[in-house]
């Protein structure tokens, strides 16, 4: 690469390869330079500035014919031909933008594009404090009970440049282009604002709109933020001939159903007391490759199975404990299984569809982590506050654990209804790293996926519908007492609570509603039930329909109950949970004559990154050492983060 670039060049850990048009090669960047590797001769060549390859590297999306590419350009978009010449462009403006969907091209070469109008949406101020002359940017942020964005779908003819507005129903909600049928019919998902109704709409080539399917839950929800951020991608799978697969919780668990081309129910494909997370691929023989959490002893593991076109028993393909991700080959004979668990670093294996391993492709080198004394978390189960529901979680032991010592305890909480706090793979998440940092500093850390969180049955997820904030802390308190009764080295007289985002809300909630258990709390970027509409309304109902539930879940009215030390961190540029939520809390504490600490980080968004993230985690540790004390083992804890490298094995 140094020969090609004319300077020293270091390859990154993961190369961001892009397929060249016609799948004839790979495109990649190295610093400011762009290159192409052709499959026929494996030669590496520079890519011209004005070529279609450059547009593909700029996140362009090629047409099925490979002769055009659509590129998002800020608020606008453009279409280029194979020579890199611009054919069509449409310019947007702030709060009235053109946005390309993930699958913008129809099989016949037309382009779908959203026109998103946020002009009537509430705006929040984001202040740039980096200079003495502050700059203020107003950012659209739809709050509970206020107008939300409107999205119109347009279809572009790239030859004539004509844009045609699709006459979608005029009703509040959220929309996604879910895919295309073979005949270039577009499939659009529409989720009602309150999350109680999900429609599948078919848009024919002539622009006619027809509703194929409606799923409705008048008393709870069909979907929420989890669906909006990622779940919609797995909701519908078009099949040859116009049939489609649909994910539904109608029988109490998330399963696969098949419908004919007109939206008439045919049959349920998968069944059982477990959720199917997604259909990874439909094989050439019509069988389905699915990812499911089908082991009752490990209800959050994600494993790969195969089932027939008409259903039947799930046949295992990859069922080692942990989290698996499948990528099926084009000929449908093999899949790449990328998986890891708490005890096994990530490996990638080439598997046949009967589950046998053809070869191991890569394995992660975790020797440095193990040499530093890393131990995986301990899986735990406790009963929820109802005394019936089994909850699963993880317990992180302190570095240099000695059962003869008494350790302070941190309850690491998330509690939001569209996620889990415990990650079941090896490297974990930002929440895992925070828990491990606290454990390295001498704390026992307990993380529990409480009632109302994602990944289990419909009833489990609905446990907190309309009443967020009323049972999650109680689940933690009960769980901690059960664990402490069995582990004398857990000092339940020194328990703190910490979380970020929803976890920040619940950390404050714990300090206000369970002061006998929680002696100190650290809340990172806490939200509130009256902030983001999409975050709250599908899980609480609309404000006008559930004012008592919203009021009961507010931390503001409980400010006078604070008895222990509480510290809040908030980034001033947070556009997910605006800093105003913390400002209102601090105002309530002031009026209640309660002391509270605030760490405001200038210019940082919802999730601190890099050095700021390190500072944040260290600040959490310092706070709890100051307020709860630590153990003697903390002094020998490792001071640096050790990475896990992936290496190809011979």
Point out poorly predicted stretches: 633-650
Give average pLDDT, whole number.
92
**Category by helix and strand content:** alpha+beta
CATH architecture term of the domain at 380-636: 3-Layer(aba) Sandwich
Distance separating the two termini = 24 Å
Describe the sheet with the most strands: 8 strands, mixed
Inertia-based shape:
globular
CATH C-level of the domain at 380-636: Alpha Beta
CATH superfamily of the domain at 380-636: Alpha/Beta hydrolase fold, catalytic domain
Percent in strands: 25-35%
In DSSP terms, counting alpha (H) and pi (I) runs of 4 or more, how many helices? 12
Q: What features would you describe in this structure?
A:
By secondary structure, the chain is α+β, with helices and mostly antiparallel strands. Among the domains are: 1-58, no CATH class; 280-341 and 343-376, no CATH class; 380-636, Alpha/Beta hydrolase fold, catalytic domain (Rossmann fold). It is 16% helix and 35% strand. The protein contains twelve helices and 39 strands. The strands form nine sheets. The chain has an eight-stranded mixed sheet with strand order 31-32-34-33-35-36-37-38, with helices on both faces. A five-stranded antiparallel sheet has the order 27-28-29-30-39, with no helix packed on it. The chain has a four-stranded antiparallel sheet with strand order 1-2-3-4. The longest helix has 19 residues, at 610-628. It is globular and about 70 Å long. The model is unreliable at 633-650 (pLDDT under 50).
